[in-house]
Please model this.
Amino acid sequence: MTLYVAPIVEGQTEFGCLETLLQRVWVQLLQSPVRMQVLLPSRDKRASLVHPAPNMQSLNRKVEEAFGKLAQRIAFDPGSRGLLLILLDSEKDCPAELGPKLLSTARAARSDADIACVLAKRMFENWIVGGASTLAGIKGLPKIIPARSNVEECSGASWLNSQIRKVDPTRIYKKTAYANAFVKKIDLHECRANCPSFDKLCRELQARVPPMVPIVEPENPEAQLPLQPAA
Model:
């Protein structure tokens, strides 16, 4: 079985490194027994996706686009599952308020799809900051990473930029060049503890991990039974 994930995103950071992050969470953190494949994200400007225009037309279009990608894959892979994942920055909005609104709109557009909506508190880079203890020396960051508190209340991109400039004032944080390298190395457990919005992502994925059931072997019922994913 394969879980196909079709993301809807807004920014360069998510577009470039979301697959890396999702695969790490799925395999390393959740230890899922089944394969995940992340499809090419559908992307639009945040304002278009969250703006309360009539019928949320831009979000609806992206939901249809992402659903089409999932349907195509699942049609050629019987037994697989699909997840449509909306992943945006909350910026100044409250994730607990905006997230359910977007999810409701998306589900109204495709009631036959499995959809999850996760908003990174402030911005995606806050998750990088949340797990940054393992980023010392990477892409110009200091050899010693300072202690961090209230991780989701700062600007993650500004924090990364300030740390890089402490080492070399002529350098700046470049999303497309640095984010994927950071995502490959962040401490996922630390990030989950520091960032409730990242924990939300983990819980959404965990809900799609199939339960394990024993393989029945009638010829030797007393033997220790290995486990396999439930159908």
About this structure: The chain has nine helices and seven strands. Residues 1-121+195-210 form a domain with the Rossmann fold fold (CATH 3.40.50). Residues 50 and 101 are 9 Å apart (CA to CA). The first strand starts at residue 2 and ends at 9.
